[in-house]
Amino acid sequence: MRAFNAAMIVVMLAPIVLVVWISFTPEAFFRVPLDSFSLRWYREALSYPDFVNAFVLSAKLAALAALMATALSFFAAYGLVRYRLAGRGFLLGFFTSPLVVPAVVFGIAMLQFVNRIGLYNDLIGLLIAHVVVVTPYAIRTLHATLQAVPEEMEWAAMVLGATRLRMLGRVTVPLAARGIVTAFLFCFLLSF
Amino acid sequence: MIAEAAPRARSRMERAGWLFVLPLALVLATGYVWPLFQAGVNSFHLNTPEGIDLGHWTDANYAKLLDPLYQSILERTLRISLIVSAITAVLAYPVAFFIVRLKPKVQPWLILVYVSPWLVNTVVKSFGWSLLLRSNGVINTTLQHLGLIDAPLHLMLNETGVIIALVPGHFMFVLLPLWAAASGLDPNLKWAAGTLGAPPWQIFLRVTLPLTLPSLIAGLVINFTMNMTAFAAPAILGGVRARTVSFLAFQVNLEQLNWPLGGAIAVGLLVFTLAVVWSGQRLAFLAVRSGRTRP
Amino acid sequence: MSLEIEGLEKHFGDVRAVAGVDLAVGHGEFFTLLGPSGCGKTTILRVIAGIYPADRGRVRLGGVDVTEAPIHARNMALVFQNYALFPHLTVFENVAFGLRMRRLAREEIRRRGREALELVRLGTLAERYPDQLSGGQQQRVSLARALVIRPDLLLLDEPLSNLDARLREEMRGEIRELQRRLGVTTVLVTHDIQEAFAMSDRVAVLEAGRILQTGRPAELYLSPASRFVANFVGPTNEVALAAIRTVGDGTLATTSGGLAIKVAARPGTDAGGKAAWLMIRPENLRLFVAEGETDNRYEALVEDVVYLGAATSCRLAIGDLRLMAAVPSTIGARLAPGVRVAVGWSAEDGVIGHDR
Lengths: 192, 295, 356
Description:
The complex is a heterotrimer of chains A (about 190), B (about 300) and C (about 350).
Chain A: H1 2-22, H2 40-46, H3 49-82, H4 88-96, H5 103-116, H6 123-148, H7 151-159, H8 164-175, H9 177-191
Helix pairs in contact in A: 3-6, 3-9, 6-9, 7-8
Chain B: H1 7-42, E1 46-48, E2 51-53, H2 60-65, H3 68-100, H4 107-119, H5 122-133, H6 138-145, H7 159-170, H8 172-184, H9 187-195, H10 200-229, H11 232-238, H12 245-255, H13 259-288
Chain C: E1 3-12, E2 15-25, E3 30-34, H1 41-49, E4 56-61, E5 64-65, E6 76-79, H2 91-101, H3 106-119, H4 135-147, E7 153-157, H5 165-182, E8 185-190, H6 193-199, E9 202-207, E10 210-215, H7 217-222, H8 227-233, E11 237-247, E12 250-255, E13 260-264, E14 276-280, E15 286-287, E16 296-307, E17 311-318, E18 321-328, H9 329-332, E19 340-345, E20 351-354
Parallel strand pairs in C: 3-8, 3-9, 6-7, 7-8
Antiparallel strand pairs in C: 1-2, 1-4, 4-5, 9-10, 11-12, 11-14, 12-13, 14-20, 15-19, 16-17, 16-19, 17-18
């Protein structure tokens, strides 16, 4: 049993480990570096402007998308958890649905859409697409997180005089901090 | 609390709720529903060298989907997806139950190991797999060195390579719900079955399996969807011999620039996937509450 | 089947849950392990059932050593506190589970399953699922499931603690009845004294992984072997003693405040040296006693009176000594803070106990 599980872990990590390992090879062809390690390729990559630009762009995009998705999903999840809205089950399903839509389907649709309204090659189109794709993860995480924050705490704060918005910032967000950070990290990693 | 509030107060509260939900709903409506809808509409029109002929409605694009070439690609994609899901289902149980028995503090780390393939960019992963699976790759060279094989195994540029790469990539979608269900299993149930005379394999068959089956199926559904729509792994590792639907869609849209057809493929894939998902869920529901009642 | 446990020890990491336990239950006897949470009683039950392996000691069922036997081979039945009904099976399927494991013929399973459900009066609910039943009904299904396999030993792990008070009383009687009728050796685990006393032939009081005293309920209540047992089985007064002397055929105890109290002679008294306490149950203190009516009689001042319905509890002061008395409210009606009253008790009512 232990051997089996060890093998599984190896399988999970193998491609990643291999890619990282190979990145240290000094030669210009593929070889697993067993004796000589080199940072040559890292230096080359970092001095390759297209790569650096793409990297930085991806990072910026991911951060922005994660931020937007987390923020929007936080408010949406709050609305779903604390209020008895008609059709809140449907809404949650709707927000989670991008998961079911195949990436290629959505990609095609966005491509055509973005081209239509002239946002082709523009960051905004890309940003919106990323936000849509990561939203299901954000909303699921934040929905569960907010359900675990006891409503009594919010009432206590409001009874003591806080408006709902202030209460959110001072009570709900700190209590949900772990979930919010998790959602953000998730979205970032996914987007990147 | 809400039931006691006066009707006017109640609707005021509800309105505030809608305000919270609105921003996200708007973003999704414009950036998600609308484009999909448009693509759907497009698929019912013909593509011409001048652009999409919006004057005539037609189902010619969908008719094209029934083309034997396209059908064989669908078949292949379906076959690969089912094999990957089946392998995943079998492997997920031992892994899930191994993790559940570990100390609670250690468990999240192991789960992270299984989640990591999906957090890493799929292109990077596929590249890594190609290094392992190609004719002069790590696996083949090692096996030849050890004298276990004479000629290199064809692990890449065919369906096998795609399957090998997809299993770990989408594994966590089944593992996570299964692990959650296994954690939530009341240990008393196992002990009760034991005291009533059930040996360990019977406990698994009659208690553990039925109770974790819904989670397994939920996970498999997502896993299957991901398999059907995967792009990078089939593209990089499948080669010409193992084209999948997603690659076809890519070709049609970006190389041939035939958007209506591309849209039709997209819609077709979506409908097909949803249909399989729905029937899978129905099957699961029936399996769990099956006619096991006897007088 | 009789049950014997010898030198049982079980620890979890650093915690010694069971630190050396010996007990013997006769065939057909209803035996209870009584103690506060964390005293090890549930652990002992699980070791008997085979869920936990013992670190040391033996378990014998009907003379046969079953210490190493796997759970499914012991022919014992365990009723869990949360019932542990299989949520994906119907009531009937739950009850029939043990029979299926024994590979009985379909007809026999059907017959015995029905019988078991009739025994707990749930015949009409056979096709329901556990989540459609009330707590009390679930508990009865759990019982039926355990009894249908005709176990050599029935183990009950706080089966009544999840029920409301009235249902608890009802089920107490039912379980006891069933047990008597079927004659199955039973071990019950509980922290509820009333439950233990109402249902058991004998009770063992546990604390911190050890048995402090075993005996019939009356023995434990009237002749507790230690302060812990005395306090655990019911409210009691404890009077610190400075000296104990044998006088005639009885004992004279002197409190640290100089009060002299007559106590009936008992084996184990006069342990010389170890700090001694006199224990008197509140209901044994009689008020408004005349001279010579009781062996011990003192003048007391009423400090506090609490009306509890059928009984009234009051706090009395005799010099520095504080005693709680429990009297019928007809008598309690004559009490009020500040009233002087004569309080007395007989020599038999006092029990001298020593710290361990």
